[in-house]
């Protein structure tokens, strides 16, 4: 069954504007700001050594998540790259390979794995949580389009061409599952100034073990290097296994976060 109900076209969302897309160039400034703020970022809650698997976005490779993984290593986590080359997409096509990678990380560490997924990588993370919750400690998604009209992205044509998986052809039950409650603690970090993905597709339904964190003025490309995003990731990963408390926006980057909404 097609995921998108063609009788409900009024529910379609638009991809971000051309102006927001062009403004993605500011990600370089976000990276430079994080470098300057690194002494402050290293004051984030320390990790307990558990494994963190970081999944890149569409067309990205492990190089794109290297700064994030390096930061988390400094905080005391075992960090793992996805080691599957450049991400050419395909939630269905990549499912078995990702499951094997997750199992390998879990076996190597002997502990449950936290998943941090950027953009399409976050969609992979949610899909993994649905199929292998017993090996996952929690998931954090960064600007990931998993809710509502997932076609509202400026990367749609690239995804469909490279993956061979039309977004209008995603099975409705899979789409509902990806947008629904996860069996593990979940955080979605997003920005309304995202130039690639319509921010509304990154919203999850808040629950006792799930929350949205909006970072003001962040770019899509900069979500893995933005200082406020890095702090939020570190804070969420530092929670004891099996526990979940709402994110405290009163930290050193308080001005960068929007107030929580229901």
TrEMBL record:
Source species, domain of life: Bacteria
Protein name: Alpha/beta hydrolase
Gene3D superfamilies listed in its UniProt record: alpha/beta hydrolase
Organism field: Rhodopseudomonas pseudopalustris
């Amino acid at each position: 069954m097609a995921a998108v109900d063609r009788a409900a076209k009024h529910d379609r969302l638009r991809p971000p504007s051309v102006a927001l897309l062009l403004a993605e160039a500011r990600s370089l400034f976000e990276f430079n700001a994080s470098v300057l703020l690194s002494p402050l970022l290293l004051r984030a809650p320390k990790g307990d050594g558990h494994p963190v698997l970081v999944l890149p976005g569409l067309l990205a490779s492990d190089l794109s998540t290297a700064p994030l993984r390096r930061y988390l290593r400094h905080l005391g986590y075992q960090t793992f790259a996805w080691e599957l080359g450049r991400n050419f997409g395909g939630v269905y096509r990549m499912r078995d390979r990702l499951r094997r990678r997750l199992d390998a990380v879990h076996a190597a560490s002997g502990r449950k794995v936290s998943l941090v997924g950027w953009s399409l990588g976050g969609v992979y993370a949610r899909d993994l949580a649905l199929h292998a919750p017993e090996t996952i400690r929690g998931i954090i998604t960064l600007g990931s389009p998993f809710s509502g009209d997932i076609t509202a992205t400026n990367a749609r044509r690239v995804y469909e061409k490279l993956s061979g998986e039309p977004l209008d052809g995603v099975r409705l039950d899979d789409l509902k599952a990806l947008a629904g409650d996860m069996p593990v603690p979940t955080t979605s970090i997003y920005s309304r100034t995202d130039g690639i993905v319509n921010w509304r597709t990154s919203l999850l339904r808040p629950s006792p073990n799930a929350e949205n964190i909006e970072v003001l003025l962040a770019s899509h490309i900069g979500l893995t290097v933005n200082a406020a995003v890095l702090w939020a990731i570190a804070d969420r990963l530092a929670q004891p296994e099996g526990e979940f408390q709402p994110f405290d926006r009163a930290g050193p980057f308080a001005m960068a976060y929007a107030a929580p909404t229901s």
